[in-house]
Structures are given as C-alpha cells and as structure tokens.
Amino acid sequence: MAHYAFLDENNTVTEVITGRNEGEKGHNGEDIADWEEFYGNIRGQVCKRTSYNTEKNVHRLGGTPYRGNFANIGFTYDEARDAFIPPQDFPSWTFNESTYVWDAPIAKPTIITEDTADPVTWSYQEYWDEDAYQADNTKGWYANKTNDTGNPQVTYEWNGTAWIAL
C-alpha cells in the first residue's frame, strides 16, 4: 500500500489517497510504470508519492526518510527540497532544514514533573503564545493541567529553566 498527494497550482496538498505500490500491476493486470503519473493523469493534477512512515525527515521504522514528512492537506510540496513542508505555525518560527518542520524561537521545554507524593497523575497541554513572545522574546511556552478541575485552571509559564505557576 502506498500513499499519494494531489497538489494544486501552488503545490499545496489538496488530498491524500491510498494507492498502489510502484511495481504493482493495475486492476486489469496492466503494467503501470509510474503511479504518480497514472493518478495525476486521472485527476488532472500533479501527484506525488508520500511516506506514511516519514515525519520530521526521519523514517519511524528505521528506513530511509521519504520527502521529509507524510503529506497532509495544506502542506506544500517543495520541488527544490523534494519534500512536503507543513504550514508555518507562527510568524516567529523558523524553518529547520534538517527536520523539514518549523521550530519555535524558544525550544519546547520538557513536560512538567510533579512531586511524587502527589497521588494524582497529571496530564498537561503545552501551547505557544505568539503574542506573549512578541511582547517579551524570553516568553512563549505555557501549559495547563488538562485534568485540573479547579476553577480557574492553573496556567504555567516556562521561564527558560522551569515552569512557574501564574
């Protein structure tokens, strides 16, 4: 089983389908030399194969990464890199040429750890606040406990070395 991405005139992915592997015969036993071309001709769109197992330019099963990332709707196919590039998350984030994804200007911190005496196992939702970063470029990462039933929920801010409850 292979996956194929259809591109619009701006090389933006509009759809991803499951199709035939290279070397597989067609439904009627015919030889198909190029499945990208075959699917593209049917749709009248450019079609590019994509690997379900490639993310951040790493093959999750240890194989050779293929086209940077598994294509998703809204990704852009970059011909020069022969890679699928996700949309930029925020204006301050920069493109990473080795992982083919966008990186925050402040590295994403590790998850908050709790005091082992606390009997509750907490889950956290980390998020980037672009407005906070634009106001103070030492800030940007925040987190909330997703299973916190308190009202209001406690918000944590990353100060560069530790999570601080606000």
How would you name the oligomeric state of the polypeptide chains in this document?
single chain
**Structural shape:** elongated
Number of helices: 2
Summed up, the domain count is 2
> What can be said about the biggest beta sheet?
4 strands, antiparallel
Order of strands, widest sheet = 10-11-12-13
How would you spell out the order of helices and strands? EEHEEEEEEEEHEEE
% residues in beta strands: 25-35%
Unreliable residue runs:
none
Mean pLDDT: 90
Structure classification: mainly beta
What share of residues is helical?
under 10%
Radius of gyration: 21 Å
Key descriptive features of the protein:
single chain, 166 residues, mainly beta, 2 domains, four-stranded antiparallel beta sheet, three-stranded antiparallel beta sheet, 13 strands, elongated
Structural summary, described in words:
This protein is mostly beta strands and 166 residues long. The chain has two domains: 2-103, no CATH class; 106-166, no CATH class. It contains two helices and 13 strands, in the order E-E-H-E-E-E-E-E-E-E-E-H-E-E-E. Strands 10-11-12-13 form a four-stranded antiparallel β-sheet, with no helix packed on it. A three-stranded antiparallel β-sheet has the order 2-1-3, with helices on one face. The protein has a two-stranded antiparallel ribbon with strand order 4-5. A hairpin with a 4-residue loop joins strand 12 and strand 13. The longest helix has 9 residues, at 35-43. It is elongated, with a radius of gyration of 21 Å. The model has no long low-confidence stretch (mean pLDDT 90).
